[in-house]
Amino acid sequence: MKKQGRGIDFEHRFSASRWAEDLVKRDLNRKHGLLTVRFGLSEIRPEDKLDYGGDVKEPDLLVYSLDDLSAKEAATLRTANLPNEPRSKFNRHGKLRFTLTKAIAALEVEFSPYRAKEMKGRQWKPKTVEKWKRRPLLHANPPTAPNIWVKEEDFGKLLKWEERSGVPIVIVHVFDQEGFAVTLRHLAAFRKQIRRASDDQKKVKLQVTSGIFHKLQKYDRTDAQGAGEQKWVFVTAPSSALKVGDIEGVKVRAQLDVSRSRKYVTAPVFTGGRLKVSADFVQLLLGLR
Fold it and tell me: ∠ CA 1-183-115 to the nearest 5 degrees?
């Protein structure tokens, strides 16, 4: 299936997401007894080669415990270019099958250009059932906070990949200052619950008491003269997620480009920084399989 070509706005988001992936990959590997490598194909392609077929979405990174790897396996993972390897090598009898059977987790990394700790809803917490009973709400609106976002269209494809590979997926959302995580399994359980909810009021209650929201979100394309689309998304508040760690020393500058419609477009460019990985996040990864 062919998709419409992506413009300068996508390139800006891609560059920022790649920075976030590199940050997570590098700092998980520092001293936690873990080895993190790239897996999912992540590149900008010419418009005539935009072919995104398939019913799965491969996660960005694979994580291993060094204690589980032989010296040969660790050396292969450090030198191989997994995103560009033929996928047949990861099949049951393929020579790279161990990269899936030995992985303790897979990470799908997202990025949003917000100063997380300064967002007004950063300290928002879900309502308790008692508070809900005293004051039920008509609508479920996520806080303005460093939330974890997952598009419904990506969720199903990630879930299929997790089921087929046997590797549990963790969604990691990186911001300036902080990062947060939620397992795909946790979101899948929430999705089952909200689908079973018999009326809108029960759906609202589930969202505001769990801190996970399901909503229709509008996405604009800054390089397409106001064009946009709406997509269903899952939004997890930071209070309902696990903190990946604090991020320090990030440098930000502005970049100016010209879109295909010849409009000037600016975007923040992130470089540097260090992720101080939390012990809780490391324990989550080690305990998934």
Answer: 90
Backbone angles phi, psi at 276, to 5 degrees: -90, 95
Coarse DSSP helix, strand, coil percentages of the chain, rounded to the nearest 5 percent: 35, 30, 35
CA 106 – CA 36 distance, rounded (Å): 9
Q: What is the pLDDT of residue 128?
A: 96
pLDDT digits (tens, 9 = 90+) for 198-235: 999 999 999 999 999 999 998 876 555 556 789 999 99
Report how far residue 236's alpha carbon sits from residue 276's, in angstroms, rounded to the nearest whole number. Answer: 22
How far is residue 213's CA from residue 260's CA, in Å, rounded to a whole number?
A: 35
Sign of CA dihedral 97, 171, 288, 203: negative
pLDDT on residue 20: 95
Kindly report the pTM of this predicted structure: 0.90
At 215 the pLDDT is 96
Q: Where are the chain's structural domains?
A: 8-286
Q: What was the pLDDT predicted at 225? A: 54
The CATH number of 8-286 is 3.40.1350.10
Q: Name residues whose C-beta falls within 8 Å of residue 271's C-beta, 6 or more positions apart in sequence.
A: 19, 250, 251, 252, 253
The DSSP secondary-structure symbol of 126 reads P
Tokens at 258, concatenated: 């010209």
C-alpha to C-alpha distance for 76 and 132, rounded to whole angstroms: 53
